[in-house]
């Protein structure tokens, strides 16, 4: 028996439908670069198909959910270039979950169980010790009305499990029941429902698990494609079964590899240094983050992509690898530098002004090749305008003093550097690093930086003379 999507179903033969996807974060913390991967995958997939993107907050955990995180997530997604077509909150949809749960209870597909967490763990330990899989044995189904009443009298509250369709009428005798689907990233996938425990959909405190609420939401909102991390693959068979008993066709699924640290560790909200907000505050470009999040772990080269439209053209779920997608902060900064080096002045003019840099296109074009972030331009603006802490070694002091005497007269132009160093070389016999480096250190206080030929006119004659001994 096979439930769910026939393996041949794909977006290619579903052209009549409007593609609708969703990204459903929990507002219990800031999103990080790992969260940005499914958000971007869904956004790019929908926009490439002319579809719609829903931002749906899983905020049913009222104790941990915070409005500040809702606002933070919306701000971070907007910075990445993601503008939702619709924003929903699960906390406002409890009536829909109640109605769906009652439908399953009336059909005998949600049944109450009274075991405590400790009792369940002891039972699983015994099963493992006997070489059996730790699958729930449906004890809750065997309870009589009197036994349930006795548990209630003890003060126990039931949790409710979904009865998987892995039997031929007698739920205490399961049989192999394979659910298969054609995964957009992983190809044909299958799960045997007989190998799984009946999932808990309602906790003992009456709150719903995300497995259930997300399915109800997906049905009500017409979600056509679910694109998410591969850690959800094992849940998909169960979810397809629930879609079907609620009278809905399951969406098309795609499970991509997860973004991890360089050591292969999973990313989490606790790793604040990887949050989108912290990356933005470091001055990184949104497209550098998006380029890395989307292209890492695919068969495509990880390279900086300047616009979301260009990234959309490169985006292809079939190129996603089965191996982990490892996030390397150094690679991100390298991508960022390459993007910054190509940014035109008009793209950064307002940002430069916000940094207090009253410069023109000539300044930006002179310094951008040495900037890893746009904010790095401030360091070179200080070099241009001063004051600068000149660095002159004792053995170079006489040479630098001579340089002040040989500075060409007139306006400082791009030709001045060549004329000046040629005169110094002729006068002192110095060449190479011994000729150029003492001048760079005296004028900029640095061992590196933009081409002095272009930088010198920006510094100007008076500043040059003031910085020479």
From TrEMBL:
Reaction equation(s) it catalyzes: tRNA(Glu) + L-glutamate + ATP = L-glutamyl-tRNA(Glu) + AMP + diphosphate
Domain Aminoacyl-tRNA synthetase class I anticodon-binding: 400-468
CDD domains cross-referenced by the UniProt entry: GluRS_core
Protein biosynthesis listed as a keyword: yes
Enzyme Commission designation: 6.1.1.17
InterPro entries: aa-tRNA-synth_I_cd-bd, aa-tRNA-synth_I_codon-bd_sub2, aa-tRNA-synth_I_CS, aa_tRNA-synth_I_cd-bd_sf, Glu-tRNA-ligase_bac/mito, Glu/Gln-tRNA-synth, Glu/Gln-tRNA-synth_Ib_cat-dom, GluQ/Sye
Known partners and oligomeric status: Monomer.
Binding site for ATP: 269
Principal place of residence: cytoplasm
Gene3D superfamilies: 1.10.10.350, HUPs (3.40.50.620)
UniProt GO cellular component terms: cytoplasm
Renumbered ranges of motif 'KMSKS' region: 266-270
Free-text function comment from the UniProt entry: Catalyzes the attachment of glutamate to tRNA(Glu) in a two-step reaction: glutamate is first activated by ATP to form Glu-AMP and then transferred to the acceptor end of tRNA(Glu).
Entry's localization field: Cytoplasm
Family in the record: Belongs to the class-I aminoacyl-tRNA synthetase family. Glutamate--tRNA ligase type 1 subfamily.
Molecular function terms from GO: ATP binding; glutamate-tRNA ligase activity; tRNA binding; zinc ion binding
Name of the protein this chain belongs to: Glutamate--tRNA ligase
Assigned keywords, A-Z: Aminoacyl-tRNA synthetase, ATP-binding, Cytoplasm, Ligase, Nucleotide-binding, Protein biosynthesis
Organism: Roseibium marinum
Taxonomic lineage from the root: Bacteria, Pseudomonadati, Pseudomonadota, Alphaproteobacteria, Hyphomicrobiales
Enzyme class, broadest EC rank: ligase
GO BP term, pick one: glutamyl-tRNA aminoacylation
Motif ('HIGH' region) on chain: 25-35
Domain Glutamyl/glutaminyl-tRNA synthetase class Ib catalytic: 19-333
